[in-house]
Amino acid sequence: MNNDPVDVLIIGAGASGAAIAWSLLETRMRILCLEQGDHLPDKDFPSRHEDYEIARYGAFSCDPNVRRLQQDYPINSDDSCITPVNWNGVGGSTINFLGHWPRMRPSDFRTKSLDGVGEDWPLDYHTLAPFYDMNDHNTGVSGLGGNPAYPDYKPPHPPIPIGKLGQTLARGFNEKGWHWWPSDVAILSEDDDGRQKCVNAGTCDLGCAAGAKGGTNFTYWPMLENAGVELRTRARVREILVDESTGFATGVLFHGADGRVHEQKAELVIVACNGVGTPRLLLNSKSRLFPDGLANRSGKVGKNLMFHPLTGVAGVFEEPMKGHEGPMACSILSQEFYESDPTRGFVRGYGLHSGRSTTPMTYALGGYGIDSPIPWGAEHREIMDNVYPYLAGLTVVTEDLPEEHNCVTLDPDLTDSDGIPAPKITYKLGDNTRAMLRHGEDRAKEVLLAAGAKRILTKGDDKVWWRAGWHQMGTCRLGNNPETSVVNSWGRCHDVKNLFIVDGSIFVTAGAVNPTSTIQALALYIGDQIKTNIATLFD
Amino acid sequence: MSEHSNIDPQSPLDAILDVLIPANPSRNIPAAGQLGVATFVTEAAAQKNALNTALIALLSRAGELADGITPDTVRQLETELPEAFNLLLVETYKGYYSRPDIRALVGVGAHPVHPAGYEVASESPELLNELTAPVRARGPVFRDPPGGQA
């Protein structure tokens, strides 16, 4: 292993690490990415096998506490109503994400000014728009232009089919006079650049063996490795090192595939480990200069953790909905209740996402991300024969407001297999979120009935989905004020001028949309700012 | 010899599984015991201590029940040994629905979903245009505050 110093060291080969590596490629700097996991070979995609569904409950669970692979780290979620989910490997969580690709909206960047909650971002939608476009092209995004919920833009590929289920629900939204639109998706509707279009397998969470889904294992990384970016797998970073005389990052210590600890020096360090992994790494990087964790003079590292709390409502229709055919999460999206309306009893809003239904085993075990098996016996037979095939559902995806008590800290006892302290999540739902979930559930029932549902199925309790912690945001947020934020308006740590953060942890607010398109647009924007400011980068 | 090897993969486990997921004779859908899910469950128990312990406890208690295996006695097992029962239920669902032949009987392809997938027709531009017309007719539904760097 060659540990010669590099110009740029990126930690994490997921959504944001890949995007910023691509942005910096043209600088001809020597770029190295350290990734704790490995490549996923074609034969290991569960959807290549007859018993593919069972992988969801073992080695391909979205929950690292269930998966417990060598590259995973445990997460203590005992004090949280939502547990984080992820994938550790080349592609990161774009391996098992569902590819839903909505952008944040202009008001998401100005929640303080507009609605008196959260904080304003130090940049706005229109600043990010060209980077959204660039990333949509690189990723292969499909969708329908002209969505009246956004300033005008057009996805590069035509929409994927919304299917019978989507058409049925769309008519329900039209009946109510509410907004809906075919979902933007990081899934190809046509062959593109050597990648195969979607075959409607419906198992996006088990990795897309076709390469139709825009995981960075299929989009950025093949291109980056061909261009000379070094991607070193099974390399788990233990801590980021600093020079105590200059206060600059000098590199990292990492556990290599050989089981030994190595030092890797770098001029510029970029952290891309997302909203749980990044604060964990910074909090584990203590020194005399930074006794409370690296870049944490504000005390904000790990604070303001935001998820997107979810609940679901399903309708039983007269005809089979064929919900297992087509991408899992992506059919249509309503943003009718996205913006604040004082008459609703809460601020900000939510989206109504039409997922398709899951496969039979997952439905029988309670649904995706839920551990609550459906009834057994005669009732089981009735549900699987006369309910399951006729289902169409809506998921209420709410905006989570930043609250300091929701946080990532280090667990005093729990460690990963290399002995590195594991993260602990402390998180509870705010009253505003609870009000949104109730409102969303009622509106979802209305629209399902308007679409022709004969019966509505709800969970009958106020619990949110346990494994809904896909979207991990806010724990190292952007800002112009070093007292209240961790990184400046272009991702550079206030406290360490050659240390950048580019993942979901830098979000100031969460919006109510899946964050990956914004994470990658931000990473490209930060890369652009690094190039623009290269002569005075560390001043 | 490990304890799990003493579990007979035939009845009464088959009988319990038949109650958990009964057959639908009109559609030729077999019950879980008939399908042989007991083999899946006992093999899983050989790998998972908690499931193995649960299975032994459930079968031991089932053997004590005078009425044999009926929906009522299975309900009694669920009431008396809820955690063990839940472990068996989860494994039964896994074993049953991981079978390609069962997936086909409930309307889902028996094949590995890659590379074949499913054929889903794209909506025509005319249909999409018709469906989205009322949405477009309302005009923009977003707020666009004054922009720039904050």
UniProtKB/TrEMBL annotation, chain A:
Record's keyword terms, sorted: FAD, Flavoprotein, Oxidoreductase
Gene Ontology molecular function, alphabetical: flavin adenine dinucleotide binding; oxidoreductase activity, acting on CH-OH group of donors
InterPro entries noted in UniProt: FAD/NAD-bd_sf, GMC_OxRdtase_N, GMC_OxRtase_C
Keyword Lipid biosynthesis tagged: no
EC number(s) stated in the UniProt entry for this protein: 1.1.99.11
Annotated ranges, domain Glucose-methanol-choline oxidoreductase C-terminal: 402-523
Glucose-methanol-choline oxidoreductase N-terminal domain sequence ranges: 196-309
Family under the similarity heading: Belongs to the GMC oxidoreductase family.
The protein's name: Fructose dehydrogenase large subunit
Organism: Ruegeria meonggei
GN (gene name): fdhL_2
UniProtKB/TrEMBL annotation, chain B:
Protein name: Gluconate 2-dehydrogenase subunit 3
Annotated organism of origin: Ruegeria meonggei
Organism lineage: Bacteria, Pseudomonadati, Pseudomonadota, Alphaproteobacteria, Rhodobacterales
